[in-house]
Write a structure and sequence with these properties.
two-stranded antiparallel ribbon, globular, 20 helices, six-stranded mixed β-sheet, about 600 residues
Length: about 600
């Protein structure tokens, strides 16, 4: 009878998690509009207009544009408009994430119980690198990495079942190569993942040379075709020169190594502070639990590694939920995901313990160690790849490791079963449910505004009624400004013009039928001589109109800003018009 009640309770918990996850996903589709999402859409929009990779496009993330480019092509082909396209792209992003989650769940079921597999899969579904669901580079990296590692994990099963190099193993190696190539296109420095995969195959694969060659040749073919496409319209010197320009002209991605190290070092004190906070609450929880057990004459929990780790992780997620409920800080500080470091470290300790104890290469533990090395070091390589090219901090970049964290939790569950079955039975599900609830809560409750500040859904007061983002719920002023700018662009900027909009909200390029007059639509470009260099190489992109942000005539930037100075002097405007939130400089085309 008690078992029946327990099963019924678990079913209702699962239903609640599913419902809450669906609601959180719907919130991600319909609430907020963030500048990085606008950038992710305008790059493929430019490609569909005819701008070419590494030629007219100098955007640092342009190789990841193929997914949204395909979606925009389908959407515009069907509806002949880009209105509501943001909602469409986000919906496809949610469905893609759900599909990858389903495949991940199928893999997890082979190593943990059905309830734990469900909780881990839902944890993965509700963890997003940047908090939004659009299929741009961060989510694509996560998806392709997850699928790549699932394929490599499935290879273990294939080699166990097959006694020869069957076609299934060849297909698997080709799939690994394809997924690895797609991951590199999502973020070029993820080429580090190739090193990890090759090292893994050499260390563990039964057919080492064949497997490495198949994966490598697949990557070479895909990379060669991609490069052939680019070199069909660029010479090699032009290609190299444009790559240099891309790296130098992006203000947020061109920091020196010493500047990056300084930025990273500023995160370390905060991470240490969080670790201490987690430890303090962990101590309090353990003390209270032992005190209550004494008062009620119950068995006092033994302070095993598994038990203390469980309480430490629970403490971290309790603090996270309290923080999100009571306050929200800036984007870089609003996530305490440094706890991922503890999960990775604990997993490596457990794998080491298996080896030292002499049971590491018996039964399923041998496979778990192999899988652990694959998932941990692949995620570490991706973390390094992100830090090499990004402007994100250590704290923010940790969120990209969700696939590795879920895999580590699966290994930790197996360790708990063997080393401390009592703690596993009493606490494992509680911890997983808490982690899932925390991930659902922040996904459904909070969002990042265009100033990089964390907000919550109670601040939503408006809905955008115009343009690609039509139907999106936002704060009142954001929605009002989008609609005002949309109407002004339609009224003031002639169709067919070349426009340079000096704004972080780059979706404005889709308000009117215009050509983009900038080398990039990233929200953090360097305004300087790079524009002159770009216009000399591609004079057809010289702007007819320059739009600079203002507030009812009060300029956002001072006169010594490079673009403001250029618009007022060398651009030789024939007319200057003040709108609500832009000042428009119109070029005299006769000159």
């Amino acid at each position: 009878m008690n078992e029946t009640k327990r099963e019924t309770r678990i079913k209702w918990i699962k239903r609640g998690i599913l419902l809450a996850s669906v609601l959180a996903a719907l919130k991600c589709i319909f609430v907020s509009l963030q500048m990085d999402e606008e950038y992710a859409i305008t790059v493929p929009y430019r490609i569909l207009q005819g701008d070419r990779l590494f030629a007219e496009l100098w955007d640092p993330h342009q190789t990841s544009a193929f997914f949204i480019e395909f979606l925009l092509w389908i959407y515009h082909g069907i509806f002949q408009t880009y209105t509501y396209s943001v909602i469409f792209i986000r919906t496809i992003g949610v469905l893609t994430h759900a599909l990858v989650t389903y495949l991940f769940w199928g893999g997890l079921r082979k190593f943990v119980g059905k309830d734990q597999a469900f909780y881990l899969a839902m944890l993965y579904f509700n963890l997003l690198p940047k908090g939004y669901v659009m299929p741009e580079f961060s989510n694509m990296m996560l998806w392709f990495l997850t699928l790549l590692l699932l394929a490599a994990t499935h290879r273990i099963e294939l080699e166990t079942r097959l006694n020869y190099y069957a076609p299934a193993l060849t297909r698997n190696a080709v799939a690994i190569g394809v997924l690895l190539s797609l991951m590199v296109l999502s973020y070029p420095t993820c080429v580090l993942g190739y090193i990890v995969i090759v090292a893994y195959l050499i260390r563990y694969d039964r057919y080492k040379l064949k497997s490495v060659l198949t994966v490598t040749l697949t990557c070479i073919v895909i990379g060669g075709l991609y490069l052939w496409r680019i070199l069909s319209y660029l010479t090699i010197p032009q290609f190299i020169e444009n790559i240099k320009s891309i790296l130098e002209s992006c203000g947020s991605h061109s920091d020196s190594k010493w500047e990056k190290l300084y930025i990273f070092s500023t995160d370390l004190p905060f991470m240490l502070l969080y670790f201490v906070l987690f430890a303090v609450l962990c101590f309090v929880l353990i003390w209270l639990e032992r005190l209550l057990c004494r008062k009620k004459n119950k068995e006092i929990p033994v302070l095993t590694f598994a038990y203390v780790l469980n309480r430490y992780l629970m403490s971290a997620y309790i603090i996270q939920i309290l923080h999100w409920v009571l306050m929200l800080w800036q984007y870089e500080s609003s996530f305490f995901y440094c706890i991922y470091c503890v999960i990775f470290g604990a997993t490596m300790y457990c794998m080491h313990h298996w080896r030292v104890a002499g049971i590491g290469y018996h039964s399923e533990n041998k496979v778990l160690i192999q899988i652990g090395n694959l998932w941990i070091w692949s995620n570490v390589a991706m973390y390094v790849a992100i830090l090499l090219l990004t402007n994100l901090t250590l704290m923010t970049s940790i969120k990209y490791l969700s696939a590795g964290v879920v895999a580590c939790l699966a290994i930790l569950l197996n360790y708990m079963v063997q080393a401390d079955a009592r703690s596993y039975k009493r606490y494992a599900n509680h911890l997983l449910i808490l982690m899932v609830v925390a991930s659902i809560f922040v996904k459904g409750y909070a969002y990042i505004d265009n100033d990089g500040l964390m907000k919550n859904i109670t601040g939503v007061r408006n809905v955008i009624d115009e343009g690609p983002a039509k139907g999106i719920f936002t704060e009142y002023m954001q929605g009002y400004m989008v609609e005002s700018n949309y109407q002004e662009f339609k009224e003031l900027i002639p169709a067919g013009s070349t426009l340079l909009a000096m704004d972080s909200n780059t979706l404005c390029y889709m308000y009117q039928d215009v050509k983009v007059g900038s080398f990039t639509t990233i929200c953090t470009p360097s305004y300087g001589p790079y524009f002159k260099d770009y216009w000399e190489r591609y004079p057809e992109h010289y702007p007819d109109v320059i739009a600079i942000p203002c507030w009812y005539g009060e300029m956002k930037y001072t006169d010594d800003n490079w673009m403001v100075h250029y618009a007022n002097t060398e651009f030789h405007p024939s007319a200057v018009v003040d709108g609500k939130y832009f000042r428009y400089y119109f070029r005299n085309k006769a000159e």
